[in-house]
Amino acid sequence: MDPKFAPDLIAPCGMNCAICKNYLSYTHGVPTKRGKVSHCKGCVPRAKNCYIKRGCPKLSKHQLKSCSQCDTAPCKNFAHLDKRYRERYSMSMVENLKTINAKGMDGFLAEQTQKYRCPSCGGVVSVHDKKCYTCGYIEKKTGV
Ligand SMILES: [Zn+2]
User: Fold this and answer.
1) Which chain residues have CB less than 5 Å from ligand 1, an ion?
2) Largest interatomic CA distance in the chain
3) Domain residues of the chain, as ranges?
4) DSSP label at residue 12
């Protein structure tokens, strides 16, 4: 069974909330490392005011829905977040947005499915803690 990823879980910055440990904790009722079950339904469903959105007049005034529609992306805040994700989680939101623009949302979601499928149960492996919240599988570090 393949994980099902949905467009409404793609945050304005290009983050796929379906692979976020907080979202997986919430949907599976499994505590994160901090020992608590998260209540996060995803950035878009929560209309979360993240620091990228707060720092961007186009997003906060709803002129744009996604940074993928922005001519000047990545802004300073976004570049900072992207750098942190590349270093810590081997993931880039900027690359995600490029894929969305090049292959469309369906193409991007299909790619995410390949990338984050749990080899053990077909669930979803979190980008943050490399853990499958369905079966408990933990991806071994591949070395960067
Ligand atoms: Zn699994």
Assistant:
1) 118, 120-121, 123, 132, 134-135, 137
2) 43
3) 7-116
4) T
